[in-house]
Amino acid sequence: MGLSTPGWGHAITGILEAMDRRSELGDFLRSRRARRQPEDLGLTPLGGRRRVPGLRREELAQAAALSVDYYVRLEQGRLRNPSAEIVDAVASALGLDTAERRYLHNLARPQRRSAPAGSSAVRTTLQTLLDNTTVPAAIYTKRGDVLAWNPLAAALIVDFGELPPEERNMPRLVFLDEEVASRFVEWECKARDLVSQLRMESSRTPNDESLATLIGELTMRSPDFARLWATHPVREKIRGGHRYRHPIVGEFYLRYEAFSTPDAPDVSFVAQVADPGSPDEEALRLLASWTAQAGSVDRMNAQLSR
Description:
The chain is of the alpha+beta class. The protein contains 14 helices and 5 strands.
């Protein structure tokens, strides 16, 4: 479905309304209250029938040492700028991890942040590092746009160079391209990771129209994306791993690390490696050999066609 499809503008408007900071804050806090029980906090459950799972507002307010009225106003987004200490107290009572805690701060204590620059330029030093990396590596924006890659990354996932620039986006590829999706053995985990990263980025730069458009398109076109988005997962891409299913070398597992520099915090250099001495390392070595041979054939054909 393209952006020119009738009704698309209304759909995007609806998505933007759904991403309203105040409603998102309330939805997130309610989803995290549902994960906790009074016993988790050493509290005696309040009497009466429970209409929703997890902590009641009164119980969370007690655990965070807040008045019930104050917490209700926080959950409803009616506090202009609650202190960091109060937000931290609520986060601790809810047992939030580091990424979820940062996400809550982004929603409850919004800062003026500009959307990341739309330029796809990659610094020469980063491009040189990428070209000389002997494992699959690529450079991504926080919303998953693929800015640059080496041949092994293209062989592992998809030939990004054959795609129009607007389609070089990992969330779009994983949710809308069956061939790319089939490369991930544990597709659900990869899909959830991507949704989690988009959630975090949407709280960090809520005025990013490109991000809002991407989320709107995926929500409309992918029931799986809409399902996962509704669960409010939050995560930052730092490290992890994926099991791949490659048509040439079969299944193997790679770990990844993501790096950002202080002067370019909106992009990440992501490299993937196999454990030394493992069958995964042998599969990666085979993929590298196949990629090098394919590159040699392509260069030879290019020379012959001149």
